[in-house]
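Subject: two folds for Thursday's group meeting

Dear M.,

Sorry for the delay on this. The cluster queue was jammed most of the week, so I only got both jobs back this morning. I'm pasting them in the order they finished. Each block is the input sequence followed by the predicted structure tokens. Could you check whether the formatting survives your parser before we put anything on slides? The first protein is the one we discussed after the seminar.
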Amino acid sequence: MKIEFYKYHGTGNDFIIIDNRILNWKPDHQQVAFLCDRHMGIGSDGLMLLSKMEGFDFGMTYFNSDGNESTMCGNGGRCLTAFARLLGMVDHKARFYAIDGEHEAYILNEADKHLLIKLKMKDVVVEEPIGGNFFIDTGSPHYVIFTTNINRLDVIKKARKIRYDTCFAEEGTNVDFVEIKNDHLFVRSYERGVEDETLSCGTGITASVLAAAVNTPDNPGFFKVKTRGGELHVSFRQVKNIFSDIWLEGPAELVFRGTIEID
């Protein structure tokens, strides 16, 4: 079977996207893993299917590169919105449905293949820290650790000791390391399902910002975040440890498109 695909990235977090409205394809574990393989396939951190969804502009289904269907992806949601714009499905506003519920997205700027998009994330209650660190579900589970000298950190080694810790659910957790700089946060993320550090993680960045906000009582309700793949911004409304009106803002860019044969 020949499938048309599009490759997008959001601050280096890259995705294969397929228009599944007519195709109605249900990929199996091996097919997803093959497509995401960086040596034998197209190569990406994950695969997304854009589908029809009654009452919404589209539906979002996300698979990690290990082949398993996964939870919400913030960078992926922005890229899928950019793809819907490319297809002419939306203008500058989108409403879509993902595994964690309804999302809104706004296209703030559009220049050729590069779009600036802000995505509304789900409301979050931040629980008490665990040994100074935070476990936060922003659509995907994240364990947020504050650190120093983040560029020297062996993220993979440290994260793998935590990823399947017995205090988390059977599926484990993503792990984010955060350093507070003068005017921004720097975040490095280890993503489950990719089983590696990614250049950026939208739900991880959101979780990191909320953890930083709890630790910063006089915060402005807005944080600039830098990752190895680029810069994003997160804004929110906060009442003690309850967060609403959370927006993840950053780029989404088309890299290339093509076709591939799938067994």
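Second protein, same layout:
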Amino acid sequence: MDDLSVAEAAQILGVSARRVRALVECGQLPGRQVAGRWLLPARAVEHRQDIPHQGGRPLSQASAWNMLAVLSGAEDSLNDLPAPARSRARRRARDLRRPDEMAGKWPYVLANRARSGRFYGHPSVLEDLLGDPRVVRSGISAAIDYNVALVVAGSAEGYVRSSDAEDLTSDYSLNPRVGPAQANVLLHLVDNEQAARWLFDCRVAPAAVVAADLAEREAPRDRAAGLNLAATL
């Protein structure tokens, strides 16, 4: 079977159909609409099933960015938070660095940090897109910056503020109406711009953010590269 319905995917993953639709909408699972119903690649659902999850829910977007700030050496961005929130972010960051926690938590607890949108962009615009000051280069497009041996030609990945997303997609004529095989641009849209404000001071995402991006990818090689990068933090 090549494709699964939302109900079938939910049964395999042991979650609700609503949760499956949310995973598709935020880019954590690929899917396409046919005659008004979502179809998900069976291989992608099986891959997600193979990711070892720990108990509990993914962190909220604010909590995820607070933890990533600690992991990225940007703790100054937490100064306005109450002391218990800062302590919680530091504790969670320590837990995430534990070797026995990495495989289970890196692809999971940070999943809510952004909504992911897949697009097709003409190859001639990809370099300019990654150089745009509204985009923080990350994931597969930043792997080389951290000596990660992954090279994917003709693609682009980065973070953008949600408030910039519409203008950015228009400026570069990015087409969202494409399937996973045609998409060559992956944009992570950040809704909580205050929590992630430190990220947008960067041109290239810190190693912790790149590790989170790669650890969530479908390809086992990419996922392993993300976890290996996480282990260096």
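Two things I noticed about the second structure. Residues 3-50 form a domain with the Multidrug-efflux Transporter Regulator; Chain: A; Domain 2 fold (CATH 1.10.1660.10). The chain is about 40% helix and 15% strand.

Cheers,
T.
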